[in-house]
């Protein structure tokens, strides 16, 4: 694995949907940290790919995260792994980036299956553990464990943002510092 850089990184946000987030074990905190991650990634102009599972039944991406993302078009999915959806694969390939910073729900289902398939296909996956959640804390912990054992880099949103920044004199330092406060 290499350093996360702004030129070789894409953010993937999995299923942060209106009817799903209230059922998560730490939904509000997870959503708040994910909002900060998204805001920070925008400072670096890092592209984001957002998925929604069965939008008709589970609803759109939450209002808070939609506001942070700005103008975006989600990838509709029915498969638990986003990699099983051709639109997702195409959009990921179009970025030309190999480092995938991933966040979302649920850790042990959609995040897990997407992560495993991304790594299987040669992507470097950085799992932002404070920006993922499950309905059951135990499922989340074992999902994280499995992804880590499979080779995903376990990290946090602050760590990701400062790793991209690399230097307190770099452009964006003040913006990132304000976000993580």
Structure notes:
This protein is of the alpha/beta class. The protein has a single domain (9-180), classed as Rossmann fold. Helices cover 46% and strands 19% of the residues. It has helices at 27-43, 55-58, 63-69, 86-95, 107-120, 137-150, 157-165, 173-180, and strands spanning 9-14, 48-53, 75-77, 99-105, 124-133, 153-155. The chain has a 6-stranded parallel sheet with strand order 3-2-1-4-5-6. Strand 1 (9-14), helix 1 (27-43) and strand 2 form a beta-alpha-beta unit. Helix 1 runs parallel beside helix 3, helix 1 (27-43) runs parallel beside helix 7 and helix 1 (27-43) packs antiparallel against helix 8 (173-180). The longest helix is centred in the N-terminal third of the chain and has 17 residues, at 27-43.
Backbone structural class: alpha/beta
Bin the helical content. 40-55%
Q: Under the CATH scheme, which architecture would be assigned?
A: 3-Layer(aba) Sandwich
Give the percentage of residues in beta strands.
Answer: 15-25%
The spatial strand order of the largest sheet comes to: 3-2-1-4-5-6
List the helices and strands and how they pair.
Blueprint: E1 9-14, H1 27-43, E2 48-53, H2 55-58, H3 63-69, E3 75-77, H4 86-95, E4 99-105, H5 107-120, E5 124-133, H6 137-150, E6 153-155, H7 157-165, H8 173-180
Parallel strand pairs: 1-2, 1-4, 2-3, 4-5, 5-6
């Amino acid at each position: 694995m290499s350093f996360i850089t702004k030129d070789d990184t894409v953010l993937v946000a999995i299923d942060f949907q209106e009817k799903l987030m209230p059922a998560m074990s730490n939904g509000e905190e997870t959503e708040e940290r994910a909002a900060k991650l998204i805001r920070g990634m925008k400072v670096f102009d890092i592209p984001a790919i957002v998925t929604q599972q069965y939008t008709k039944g589970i609803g759109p991406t939450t209002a808070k995260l939609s506001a942070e993302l700005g103008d975006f078009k989600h990838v509709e999915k029915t498969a638990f792994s986003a990699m099983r959806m051709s639109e997702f694969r195409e959009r990921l390939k179009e970025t030309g980036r190999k480092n995938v910073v991933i966040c979302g729900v649920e850790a042990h289902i959609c995040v897990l299956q997407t992560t495993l398939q991304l790594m299987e296909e040669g992507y470097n996956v950085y799992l932002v553990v404070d920006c993922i959640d499950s309905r059951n804390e135990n499922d989340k912990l074992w999902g994280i464990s499995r992804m880590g054992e499979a080779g995903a880099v376990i990290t946090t949103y602050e760590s990701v943002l400062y790793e991209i920044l690399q230097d307190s004199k770099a452009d964006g330092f003040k913006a990132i510092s304000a976000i993580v406060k």
